Amino acid sequence: MSLPPWCPTYSSRKTGVNGEKVYCICKRPDNGELMVGCDGCDDWFHFSCLKIPETYRRLVYSFHCPYCEAGITGPASQGANELPKTIWKRKCRLNDCFKPCQTNSKYCSDEHGEEYMRIMLAKVEIPGMSHDAQLQLFKDMANYHNDDSKPEQFQKFGNEEFIYDDPKDQDSLYTKIVSEDKRLIELQDNARELSDNTIPTKKSELDTLSKYLDWLEEINVKLASQKDPNLGEDATNSSSTTTRDKNKKKLNKIKAKQRIYICGYSSDCQIPCSVDEFVAEYGQELPQLKNICVKVRCSKHSGWAIMQLEEREQQLSSLESYQTRLLLLMKMRKEQLHIQYYEQLLQKKE
Q: What DSSP string describes 272-305?
């Protein structure tokens, strides 16, 4: 996918001429203008630069910038199979309202739902019938029932369960239109693969890395305390922490403390032995121990822990964002197919 004509070529520049941080496609600093954050690359973009009306500010559900949508940055640039798309919340049906709809509704509030219906009813004209008589007719239709139908059956048309739930008795027409739809099957397969394999695998990788860094930090604390006993007083206590909630603290420790005594780089981040065993075998003349780099202030692997943690966090965040988008696309596709099914079902009965 190519960039829009109004979008400049991607630039990775993050600072301006005066050293201030710059954002967006315009590469200008934050001046208080309305901005939106990209879920793919984490950069911020001005609504005006993206040609998005400010009235849409409450309707953004999952935003991806032009560069992520083109595969230059974000999930696709890291190997994701599908280019991301910006997802918008459904707008209230009232024309001049730009608030998102409430759950299981087409309106932002009950008041706007009533206002919309008043506007629609005002446009209906039945020859030879007064406006009040027309309103009464609509009320009678909503409450009409006989032996074969009830008001609840009429009133549920358009509700979530009517649009999305599979009918109890699925006929051949339903199978042909809905169950065998190739696009719906593809979305369901992708969502299943994501939830059953891809995301759990990525979480496992992140958990393995986190446990390895906990182990490595204990080693560095012990090695540092051997050199200066006062350094051992701030020993880590993160062995019982959860993976994702504590990674930020771990990153801050690595960035701020400058306490890493050995490099600790490992290609697979597997813990080879206990902390005490590793410390006992350690010697400063060794470049590696148990396939782990033990150089002091290693320039070759500088910053590897920070980069790997941030990379895995970003990958997991992108996958979860993609999962949310897939579920929304499945819901929208099923809605379209159900409408087709019920329309053709009515045509067959006529």
A: -S-HHHHHHH--TT-SEETTEE--TT-STTTTHH
Domains of the chain: 1-89 (3.30.40.10), 168-225+258-349 (no CATH)
Number of H helices, E strands in the chain: 11, 6
Cα-based distances in Å from 168 to 130, 161, 200, 237: 42, 12, 33, 55
Q: Tell me: the pLDDT tens digits for 5-48?
A: 899 999 988 888 778 899 999 999 888 899 999 988 989 999 99
DSSP assignment of 74-94 equals SGGGGT-SS----EEPPBPSS
Rounded to whole angstroms, the Cα distance separating 290 from 345 reads: 68
With a CB cutoff of 8 Å and minimum separation 6, the contacts of 230 are: none
- What angle (nearest 5°) sits at the alpha carbon of residue 21, between those of residues 19 and 27? 105
Q: Which of 212-216, 239-243, 338-342 reaches the highest mean pLDDT? A: 212-216
Considering only CA atoms, which of 305, 131, 290 is closest in space to residue 214? 305
Show the tokens assigned to 305.
Answer: 């822990």
Q: For 244, phi and psi rounded to 5 degrees?
A: -75, -35
Query: What is the Cα–Cα distance from 253 to 28, expressed in whole angstroms?
Result: 31
Cβ-based burial of 213 (10 A; exposed 0-12, middle 13-18, buried ≥19): buried
